[in-house]
TrEMBL record:
Belongs to the TRAFAC class translation factor GTPase superfamily. Classic translation factor GTPase family. PrfC subfamily. This is Peptide chain release factor 3. Pfam families: EF-G_D2, GTP_EFTU, RF3_C. The keyword tRNA-binding does not apply.
Amino acid sequence: MSNASLLQDIASRRTFAIISHPDAGKTTITEKVLLFGNAIQKAGTVKGRGNATHAKSDWMEMEKERGISVTTSVMQFPFNDCIVNLLDTPGHEDFSEDTYRTLTAVDSCLMVIDAAKGVEDRTRKLMEVTRLRDTPIVTFMNKLDRDIRDPMEVMDEVESELNMMCAPITWPIGCGKLFKGVYHILKDEVILYQTGKGHTIQDQQIIKGLDNPEIDAAVGDELAETLRDELELVLGASNEFDLELFLSGELTPVYFGTALGNFGVDHMLEGLTNWAPAPKPRATDIGEVTASDDSFSGFVFKIQANMDPKHRDRIAFMRIVSGEYNKGMKMRHVRLGKDVSISDAVTFMAGDRAAAEKAIAGDIIGLHNHGTIQIGDTFTQGQAMKFTGIPNFAPEMFRRIRLKDPLKQKQLLKGLIQLSEEGAVQLFRPMRNNDLIVGAVGVLQFDVVVHRLRTEYKVEAVYEGISLATARWCASDDSKKFEEFKKKAHDNLALDGGDNLTYLAPTMVNLNLATERYPDVKFMQTREH
Ligand code: GDP
């Protein structure tokens, strides 16, 4: 491909993920987004909830039983002259580690808020993670077909609780049974809502101009008057959209609509494709790599087991940071210092896996992984560099893993180390005994580990409770003081799956005391891969 057309293709990429609290409507919006992307003919097939239409991405019986989505998958579709990559994230908060790392692989996020509820916990937490990289955020206020809270109040809540300016792009006309549509502030037009069209792309019914009497005829005198009054207030009190502030993560454009009624999702997509950044640069240990750099590079942010029951393999998800992947090309697996030929990478067009002939910066490809790829691994065309900023997060839950058959100790250890390298769980081996302790951010991760130990490693294991509050990775610039610390704190120390020293704290009070007692030791909440 000529360089100019490659650069043009890269500039058209938009890679984003959705952040929201469970039930705000992420799955429903994903379906409608794909509908607009022509990825699927009829919306409604992304995720089945215990009914016959099981999602393609469901991979374990457990997941089906519980009706939650454990997987992170990728969907690619065209929209508005762009190629959009939507990275799905696990809906259940027990798998939030996967979500956190997926957020390192996107260039922007869509924040979905249930407008009847406002800002909720999970959204707050995920926004903290996007803040680490100042990711630009587009906001969708969902469920306008229900009685929502005062939209001005919900925007205020976003501003004060998430510390981000709001710039409304559309403004709702009524809500609940009286929801009539939105006024598009930048286009100065009313777009009317039609009920019962949730599964199709609707012909837009547009009325130009806020003073147009057709508005009064279409939505009723009362709502038309309220709309004009509210807008006067809103335009005076809120921020105007500002591209620079959006790109620096300080301001979010806000859209209103109903995902279920398939109204407003296209307005949001238009804004996102117009304004969200093309593939952004990423930091490495030897400086920044930009998307337009000639040679290929990428990093692995997630490893997924058994995506597709027909292929019992693991897929390593790689974000391409620069250049172009072509089928059969050689890549350098930097950590192993080995060149590998990749002929069978997968892309994620419309939820189905297809062999990727080509993929470029901003895209995600899946590499078949037989245990040699770890989260955080960098691939290049020969350069010895490593992408940074793909963290492990300190676990908050711990279990001791016990074997049913003591002869399988070696198998168990191998399985746990591999699962920890994949990021499925974190492993800790205390210095003072032979326990195997696994740590997780959410409790369901333990069930996944026991299930995978059984199916993939033929090890029957059980887990039992253990009273630990948290873990911190330890380091110090003062080697003498560090040695002293290792002796004195021996009974609280452990090695993680990658042999890094960690402090296991039975209580938060204990951790606080330890940080006071050893001021020369750093106790870190995240560890870079
Ligand atoms: P997720 O947990 O964020 O993925 O949320 P879902 O997309 O699964 O939606 C949660 C529930 O809210 C489902 O019952 C949806 O049908 C419903 N829902 C989603 N969007 C809307 C909407 O715009 N209006 C209404 N009334 N319900 C919605």
